[in-house]
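All the exercises in this workshop are built on plain-text protein records. There is nothing in a record beyond a sequence line and a structure line. A learned vocabulary of local backbone shapes supplies the integers on the structure line. The question running through the whole workshop is how a given chain folds. Here is such a record, shown just as it appears in the course material:

***
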Amino acid sequence: MEQINNHPLYRRHNIDSAMSSLWEFYKARFLALFIISFVMSLVIQYASTMVNFKELQTITDPLQMLEAIKGFIGPILLISLINLLFTTILQYYIIYNPLDSENNIVAAALRSLKYFIPYLIILVLLTFAGSIAIILGLLALIIGVFFSLLYLMTLYLFILPILMVEGTNIGNVISRTFSLAHRNFWSNMGWVAVFLIILIVISVIFSAIILIPFSGSFLKTIINPENVSELLDFATNPVFIILSAVMGALTMPLMPIFACILYFNGRAAEEQSQIVTDTSPENDKVRVEDLYAKPRSEEDTEKE
């Protein structure tokens, strides 16, 4: 396998080159990424049908509603674990397939498993720390909450690339995550903010497209609000599941590709800084004795 610095995304970036590299990488490997993401998205969409929130509409007793909500915890947790597993596989594929064609999706699925448990542990720790950050952010009202969420997302994006490239030592991964995220801190935060805005806009547009075949249900609900329960019926419709999987497959690869760009940019900046430090000559450094005039010898005095 080639060295990681031979990866097509490995370079110093600015915001323009980051978005350009993301698009070029996505476009060059679109078919493979789409097929992988479609299968993943289809499984997640189908698993989501296990959670039927329509049952809550028939419950009026708060205690019974609480019990019903507790019953959703298991399916929601399962869906979350499946989603994280697929994210791990896709991230591994995006990092290592360009370096070695033998890292196909089957190999990526098998080789990425060793990163899954450390990834879960780090996410649990990040969730705990994040809940504290969000509570502190509430003290600063809305701006503080948004800043905390953006900061947590920035940290999150670094985790998997570091885990897969630099090893599964949890302590080292956490340390390196903070180190690289805080290098060019405001640039990283700004890039993540721009990326999330773009992703949200794309997701809203795709969601609107998906709902076009089911627009009649919304019109009926507007005319007769008592028919609101019909809105939940299309969630189990095979057409809706397939359309959602297609749209999900189009956007799913974007985040792991962007995570690689963030990580590789931080690594490249770190290595460039190290090269500059190593190649700078010692005599270029200002020494204390350089601040004072050198004593004149007797020979110099006689020559004058």
Q: What stands out?
A: The two ends are 69 Å apart (CA to CA).
